[in-house]
Specification:
72% helix, mainly alpha, transmembrane, DUF2938, membrane, transmembrane helix, 162 residues, DUF2938 domain-containing protein
């Protein structure tokens, strides 16, 4: 398999897994469960380009032009990066015959990024400690990232069959 083919598989796998995660978020929103505002992610990333990493409350920080689009772009770029991590760890054998456990493990492990990097930097504290319901928020994050891991597996399985 060429480098181009491997790259295409990784991009499709990451985008597919992110779409599965987004479908989960849409379901949660329909059920009345609060979901992440991607504009705030874009605002945080936008401020990174201006040298500001941490915010007291990201919702009260100065808006960034195009922050919603930047947030969605970042969301999918990170999903693709996590797919590349999975492919790098598991290799070609896994890409050709994916199994659930490695994808689910990577998916769940990626919850460390929002809990220990993004939430503190956006003003929610480590593992949502500064929110009214930190345990509930952490469990939602773990569930969402488990769904992402399932999406990695499902996307990889579909791609391997094509």
């Amino acid at each position: 398999m060429t480098t181009w083919e491997v790259t295409a598989r990784i991009v499709l796998m990451g985008a597919g897994a992110t779409m599965v995660m987004d479908a989960w978020a849409m379901l949660m929103k329909q059920l009345g469960v609060p979901t992440l505002n991607w504009a705030f992610v874009g605002r945080w990333v936008g401020h990174l380009f201006h040298g500001k990493f941490a915010h007291e409350r990201i919702g009260q920080s100065r808006p960034i032009p195009g922050e919603l689009a930047l947030g969605w772009f970042t969301h999918y770029a990170v999903g693709i990066a996590f797919a590349a991590l999975l492919a790098g760890i598991q290799g070609m054998v896994w890409l050709n015959a994916p199994t659930l456990l490695p994808a689910l493990t990577i998916g769940i492990a990626t919850v460390a990024v929002p809990l220990f990097v993004m939430q503190p930097a956006m003003g929610a504290g480590f593992a949502s400690a500064k929110t009214p319901t930190p345990i509930k928020n952490c469990l939602r994050s773990v569930a969402t990232h488990a769904v992402f891991g399932l999406g990695l597996y499902l996307s990889a399985a579909v791609i391997a069959r094509v």
